[in-house]
Write a structure and sequence with these properties.
The chain has 362 residues and is of the alpha+beta class. It folds into two domains: 211 residues, no CATH class; 91 residues, no CATH class. 29% of the residues lie in helices and 27% in strands. The chain contains nine helices and 18 strands. Strand 11 and strand 12 form a beta hairpin.
Length: 362
Amino acid sequence: MKEVKPDSNRFLCIICKEDKNIEENTIEHVFPEAIGGALTISNVCRTCNSWLGSDVDSYLTNNFLFQAECQDLKLALKNGKIPNILKKGSLETDQDRTVYYTMDEEGNPKDLYVTPKITKEYTKNGDLRISASVDFKDKEKLAEMINKTFEREGFSKIDPDTILQNMTIIKEKPIMKIHPSRIKVPKNISYSKEEIIIDTLRYKLSIAKIAYELSYYWLGSKFLDDETGNQIRLSLLEKNISVNTLKQFQTSGIIEYIGESPSIDIWKHLDDAYIGVMVRLSGFIFIYIKLLNVIEGLILVSKQSFNYKNYEDKIVIIDPRNRTHQENILRAELEVLGNREEIFQQLILNIGNLIKKTSSER
């Protein structure tokens, strides 16, 4: 019987699991490119790549706490700009006055700009009374603004020098009040009028996606036949995200915001890096993810480690500032930190504690 050779013009997308024309193959960033992810894989079709970017990765890249940490670290994202989460608000004394907070290219505070305000009223005698307030940087525009208002109301212009002579300069530092509900924001962040409500759900799907793609990157095409991995893959395709989405697809693990210190603090000092670790424990394979010191997750990716010949625990460290990554065998990387076996046992203990925490919350 004649051997059937694989068609080099076709490939299997690792996300939708459909056979695709090779022209549909794209480069997929395991850690989102928008936040400086430098590790890439292929075999993701164009449709799935677009879906992952807009409906999975965006839950992380637009996450308020993540962007706040990037701003604090002065970490520029893909657009070359440091996030500015406080860019728009209002005067505390006048909530109808918009205030813009700006930073320089290095992320240092630069300026507060208060938008102009003009009020008008007619006296009993039919005279028009105008009151105008502008930011000091706009003082030269004050006369023009007032005269335009007079013209629109059918009155004659006033000599600009007269206006400027009657101008009062008040030197004060404006106090800015943030109104997130007035800001155009990503769909994964909810706001009320008085407080920011942090996304506690959708960002977890972004972490699950990183774990799935890291597993494929390290374990190869055999991972596509792994039932545990397949459940993670199906959760990524779910369009209606709910509290039960990951549980529905039997995804096991814990993904959460980091408090005072990461649960696995071996790499705590790498506060401006992304960490991905693959480790085997009792025949199970786990992926640990740490993004800055904001988010961490431990996800079970396989219950059948014996299926993967020549398996080795691995680690990747992403430097988002320089958009580079460094990979290593985990034990070799731990040796750099000190007593390799002692640190490895501490790592296993930390992972065990996370697993117990996962079990107690299910």
